[in-house]
Predict the 3D structure of the following.
Amino acid sequence: MITVARDKIDELAAYYDEHDTTADLERAVPREPVPADEVMIVTSLRLPKPVMDQVRERAQERGVKPIALIREWVEAALAGQDAVVPISVIMAAVAEYQHRRAS
C-alpha cells in the first residue's frame, strides 16, 4: 500500500487546483492495450496456516515464490489432458510424489 504524507497530498491538490494540465493530456500518447489473455487479475485466497506453510516450503524447494507455485498449480489443474505441460511442472510433480512417498 502506498502512503503519502498529508502535507504532500495538500501540496499536490493545490498544484492541480492552480495549474491547467490540458496541454500535458493532449501530448499524451496512449499505449497499446494489453491482450486479454495476458491480463493478470489479483485475487485473495485464504488458506489455513499449516497449508500455507507447506506451500512456502515447496516453493522454497523449487526456488519460486509461493504465489507463483499456487498459480502454477491452478493452471495445471485447469489444463486439459492434451495441454502442453512445462518440464518444470513435471519435475515438480515427480519431486512431490517422491517426497510424499518418503514421508
In short: The two ends are 40 Å apart (CA to CA). The longest helix spans residues 87-102. The mean pLDDT is 86.
